[in-house]
Amino acid sequence: MSSSQAGGGGPGGRYHATKPSSSSVQTNLSFEIPIDDDSKTSKSNTTTKLFGDDKKQLFDRLSFVGKPAALRKVLDVELKKGDCIDEKTKAVIDAFLDGAKKDKASSVVIATGTRKGGKNNNNNNNNKDTKAVVQEIAIGALPTHVSRHNDPSGAHGLQEIAKSTCGDAGKTRRVVVASDDENDFGSLVTALTRAYPVFSMKSKSGGEKKGDEETKQEPMVVVLRGASEATAKKAKAISEAVELACRMVDTPPTSMDPQGMVDEAMAAAKRVNGVKTQVWRDKELRRDGMGCIAAVGQSAATDGREPALVRLTFVPKGVDASERPIAFVGKGISFDTGGLSLKVGGSMPGMKADMGGAAAMLGAFEALAKCSLEGTITLKQPLELLMCVAENAIGSGAIRNDDVITSYAGKTVELNNTDAEGRLVLADGVSYASKTLNATHLIDMATLTGAQMVATGSKFSGIVCNDDDFESLAVKCGKVSGDLAHPLPFAPEFFCSEFESKVADMKNSVKNRANAQSSCAAQFVYNHIDDEWKEKGGKWLHVDMAGPSTHDSGRGTGYGVGLLVSLVEELNK
Ligand SMILES: [Zn+2]
Questions:
Q1: For residues 524 and 544, is the Cβ–Cβ distance under 8 A?
Q2: Rounded Cα gap, residues 73 and 280, in angstroms
Q3: Smallest Cα–Cα separation from 237: which of 19, 29, 421, 420?
Q4: Integer Cα distance of 356 and 548 in angstroms
Q5: Which domain holds residue 243?
Q6: 274 and 189 fall within a common domain
Q7: Which stretch of DSSP H or E encloses residue 408?
Q8: DSSP at 220
Q9: What is the spatial distance between Cα 530 and Cα 240, in angstroms, rounded to a whole number?
Q10: Which of 19, 230, 405, 572 could in theory staple to 295 by disulfide, Cβ–Cβ 3.0 to 4.6 A?
C-alpha cells in the first residue's frame, strides 16, 4: 500500500516544538569514538587535550564515572600522571575512592580554579557574560554490589549521580565513563542520556530554573574508557535512540499527535540507508481490516487526526528479503483520554507518554539498523517495526462501550472499556506481524496497564512470554542493558475466560480486575496472534513498560531501547 498522508496534518492548533530531523539527532552528548589500532593489543586512547600548556584545565568540568577499580586506572593515566593537578587534589581523589561505598553511588566535586564567563579561556575579556565559572574535577563512584535481579554495571547509581557528577549546561564538560567490562557501556550510556533530556518549551526569560534553559547548551563530550571502537559506536547509537524516545514522550500531545509520530518515523527511516516505509491511515486501515486501530482512532479522526499503522522494514546486507523477520509491535497512543470510559480523578495528566512503547521501538529499530550498517551488530534476518498509532479521544464520533469491532485477525471484540485501547491497537499489529509477516520472534511493547506498576514497579517492566528460553533471554538482556524486565505468568487456560462475551468472540477488558491484570492484558493481545503461527512455534514476548517508561518527574526514560537492541543482538548470535 502506498502511503497516504491526507488529512493528517491539517487542523489548527497543531505546532511543532521540535521538528524531526532527517539528518542528525544527538544534541546533548557528543561521543569521542576511539579508533582500534590494528595490533588489537590495546584500545587506543583517543585524547582530547584536558590541560593547556599553562596547565590550565581546558574544560570547566572534568568528570570521571565508574566503579572504583576502573576509575583508579583511568585517573592514573589521565590526571595523576603529569603535574597538572596538585598533590592536595590527588589526595582528595584517593581518599574519596578509598571510602567509596560498595552498594551505593557517591560523588565528589573538587574546585580546581576559576575563570570568567565566555566559551573558553582565551577570549574571556570580550565576552559580555562575565559570570565567574568555577572549574572543577568530579569523580563519581558506582556501586560494585547489586542485587541478583539488578543490572551489575551499577547504572542505577549513575542515574542517581549523573547530574551532580557531570554538572550543568553552560559549562564545557567532558565526562569519562570507565569500565573494565565492555558489556557495561550500553546501560551506562543509557543512564547518562536519560539524565540529560533534550525537550523543553521553557521560555528563555520566564524560567525559574537556571542552567539548562537559559544557556544554549554545549554538548557534553563523552569518552567511554575501556570500550572498543565497535562498543563505543554501538553505545552512541543507543544513546541517540534513547534521546529520540525521550523527546517523543516528552513532547506535548498536540505536537506529538498521530501525524507527529508518523513524521518522526519517516525522519528516522531517512536517517538510515535502505529502510522501507509503509503507512496505513484511516481509509487504508479500514480497507485492510485493521479494525481495532481504526476504531480507537475514530474520534480524533473526525477532527483530522487520523490513526496510523506505520511499518518500517530493514533488510541487512547479505540477507534475503524473503527471510522471516524479527518483528516489533509498539503501542503508540499519542494521547489517552480513556475515550468514553473517561479518565477521571486526575489520572489523565501524563497520558502523552502512552506512546512510549512505539517511541522506544522506533529508537531501537533505528539503532539496530545503524549498527548493522556500521558492522557493530550482525543481523541475520530482516527487522520489521509496526507502530500502532492513534489518539484515544472523546467526542460524538468516539467508539462506545457495547460496540463490537473486528480485529485484523478476524476476531470480534465487544468493548466494555474504551480505556483498554492499547491492547486493541496492539491486536491488529501482532496479528499482522504473525499472519502476514510471519516473524520468527514477535515482540510487542506498550505502556499497557497500571497494574504492571503494582506488580513489578517503576524500574522493572512486566514481561509475558510463550517460551521459556525467550523469556530467560529477555531477563538476561534486561540486566545487560539496564532496562530491567521481570516475568509475569503466561497461562491462557486461566486467563481467557476473563474476556467472555455473550455477543462477540471476546470483550476487551476483564471481569475480575484482581486476577493478574497485566497477564490478562497480555492474554488479550495473544488472542489476536495467528493461531497457526503459534502452533508452528512462533515466539512471542510482551513487554508492559507502563512504570519504567517515565521517571517520577514525568520525563520519558527511553526504556526499552537498550533491552530491544540487546535482545535482537543476542537472537542473531
Ligand atoms: Zn487507556
A1: no
A2: 54
A3: 29
A4: 10
A5: 238-571
A6: no
A7: none
A8: E
A9: 34
A10: 405
Q: Strand pairing partners for 275? A: 314
> CA 565, CA 573: separation in Å to the nearest integer?
12
CATH code at position 78:
3.40.50.10590
Model's pTM, two decimal places? Answer: 0.93
Beta bridge partners of 446: 544
Ligand 1 centroid – CA 417 distance (Å): 9
158-215 pLDDT, tens per residue? Answer: 999 999 999 888 889 999 999 999 999 999 999 999 999 888 888 865 444 444 444 4
Q: Return the percentage of the chain with pLDDT > 70, whole number.
A: 89
On whether both 166 and 245 belong to a single domain, the answer is no
Sign of CA dihedral 365, 370, 372, 377: negative
Which residues lie at CB < 5 A from ion ligand 1?
336, 419, 421
- In this structure, the number of other CB atoms found within 10 A of the CB of residue 10 comes to 12
pLDDT on residue 121? 46
In terms of DSSP bridges, do strands 412-414 and 106-115 run parallel, antiparallel, or are they unpaired? unpaired
Of 133, 113, 137, the C-alpha closest to 61 is 137
Q: For residue 171, which of 79, 63, 59, 65 has the smallest C-alpha distance?
A: 59
In this structure, is the dihedral angle defined by the CA atoms of residues 47, 115, 108 and 193, taken in order, positive or negative? negative
Q: Dihedral of CA 338/339/341/344: which sign? A: positive
* Main-chain phi, psi angles of 277, to 5 degrees: -125, 155
Query: How many domains does the structure of the chain reveal?
Result: 2
Which of 129-133, 307-311, 360-364, 388-392 bottoms out in mean pLDDT, i.e. has the lowest? 129-133
For residue 343, how far is its CA from the centre of ligand 1 (angstroms)? 8
- The answer for residues whose C-beta is within 8 angstroms of residue 557's C-beta and 6 or more apart is 194, 242, 246, 548, 549, 550, 551
The answer on 313 and 185 residing in a single domain is no
Tell me, in angstroms, the distance from the centre of ligand 1 to residue 206's CA: 34
Contact 353, 253 (CB under 8 A): no
3-state DSSP percent of the chain in helix, strand and coil, to 5: 35, 20, 45
Residue 541's CATH number:
3.40.630.10
pLDDT in tens, 39-97: 544 444 556 788 888 888 999 999 999 999 999 999 998 887 777 888 999 999 999 99
Task: Band the pLDDT of 3: cuts 50, 70, 90.
Answer: very low
| 351 CA to centre of ligand 1 in angstroms | 9
Task: Tally the C-alpha atoms within 13 A of residue 97's C-alpha that lie toward its C-beta.
Answer: 20
Residue 188 sits in the same domain as residue 325: no
Query: Is residue 562 a contact partner of residue 483, using CB atoms and an 8 Å limit?
Result: yes
Radius of gyration of the chain (CA): 25
Instruction: Quote the CA–CA distance of 215 and 137 in Å, as a whole number.
Output: 21
**DSSP β-ladder status, 383-392 and 133-141:** unpaired
Asked whether the beta carbons of 240 and 289 are under 8 A apart, the reply is no
Confirm if 479 and 151 have CB atoms less than 8 A apart.
yes
Q: What's the 508 CA to ligand 1 centre distance in angstroms?
A: 11
Query: Which residues are CB-contacts of 42 (< 8 A; sequence separation ≥ 6)?
Result: none
Catalytic residues: 343, 423
